[in-house]
Amino acid sequence: MxxxxxxxxxxxxxxxxxxxxxxxxNIAVFGIVIAVIxxxxxxxxxxxxxxxxxxxxxxxxxxxxxxxxxxxxxFTLVPFLESIAVIVDLRIRTTEIRAEEALTRDTVSxxxxxxxxxxxxxxxxxxxxxxxxxxxxxxxxxxxxxxTIGSHDLTQLLSDRKTADEELxxxxxxxxxxxxxxxxxxxxxxxxxxxxxxDAMSRQAQAEREKQARETLAxxxxxxxxxxxxxxxxxxxxxxxxxxxxxxxxxEMNKDRGTTIIIPSEMATSFGSLGVVAIAKQxxxxxxxxxxxxxxxx
Length: 298
Known about the structure:
This protein is of the alpha+beta class. The chain contains 9 helices and 8 strands.
């Protein structure tokens, strides 16, 4: 780890001060000793004055044993006794994982892509409990993704991704928690299924929609049949209403087309007096009206 710029600045100031002391004391022994001390301090400052960024922590070892964390900001080391083993980044990072040809619980081969969001919450354990925690998180996420696929049916993975995301996050967290790594979230990005299965699922969805349409049509026909039955009951109890309905049908068939309708004698007899009045009224309405002036004698 390189020293911060301020360490080199202090070293430069000390060297300049040493030169000024030697010049001021006319190269006296006392001045030379002070100058040597300042030069040695200037040389050693970059080795024991260190600095890390806000999101980094330095793992400090003293004679090979963990001494503590350095940072954020400036911190010091004991020269020749302490060293920085590794710098741990505490920011949230992402890892993309993919499982190809993984079998679901209902033995369907699929491929799945997911993104894992994770961060180090304990820099000491991340540095001392495992060799490469970044690689370990990726490997654990890969195996956990396959475990999640194998414990769910395909329909569950397709219809409820949020539940699968949460279960996958909990599975990875149980394994990485001992390393001081926290899994903040997992998001399934894509689920790829074979083309033949896609065609079968499309036909199944079409059949379901057709089934719903037929059920809706059957429900409507049942409602219509109930209404027709009620109307038939009313006509059976009131013959006059039936005759009026018959005459209305005859009128509806003839009002727009202007055609001649031949009515059987039985049907005309059933109309009774109501039919005669209605037909006469209709004939009077359809007959063109004309006015004829008074006849003048010649």
